[in-house]
């Protein structure tokens, strides 16, 4: 049974802006998710080119997209073309394989209430740029963001709780890239396993700043894990954790524990 996160406060959609204005309560485990303005059920992946503004409706899978499993190879709810933007969307359960970005994309104010296989997978080429701004995710048994293609993922103003990994550079894809991730102004609420995982043998880098970690007084959540990746499909080898100034770029000053 997937663990459920209990909201402490209510998020209100900002009038006229179409953006969730999240109200924070001092001492709460995490800020609340916005309330859905309606529900849309998807039985097949929805392609997005240009901009799709969901108006904070809840999108969830049905039929062929009705699985809550962690099985690999599921279809996503949304497929974003190169340059597309998905914004003001709540992804409910079942979430299947969330969002796929085929090239550069922007994911703005998107909320995953219960992550399926992955929240979003980035599949563009070596020059692709993916931006995740605002929003949040909870109840991710494994990964939230999976980086299979190349380029740079920037995650900012995001919140995550009850998760396995916030970001993972693919450790065993058939085609590998030098990848980069930037994580800034993100709130992390325990339990969780790790923020980022990267492959040093391909030259990956992770740059972190403004990270607030809630409910992890024993510092069990790993900040940056380093691996030796491969192209064979084998399980990658973990080689270390923590800041090293070369691949995992951050200092203790970039982390705040509450």
Automatic annotation (TrEMBL):
Function: Catalyzes the depolymerization of both polygalacturonate and pectins of methyl esterification degree from 22 to 89%, with an endo mode of action. In contrast to the majority of pectate lyases, displays high activity on highly methylated pectins.
Molecular functions per Gene Ontology: pectate lyase activity
Reaction catalyzed: Eliminative cleavage of (1->4)-alpha-D-galacturonan to give oligosaccharides with 4-deoxy-alpha-D-galact-4-enuronosyl groups at their non-reducing ends
Subcellular location as annotated: Secreted
Any one of the GO BP annotations: pectin catabolic process
Cofactors that this protein relies on: Ca(2+)
Species annotation: Actinoplanes aureus
EC number: 4.2.2.2
Protein name as it appears in the record: Pectate lyase
Top-level taxon in the UniProt lineage: Bacteria
Entry keyword Signal: yes
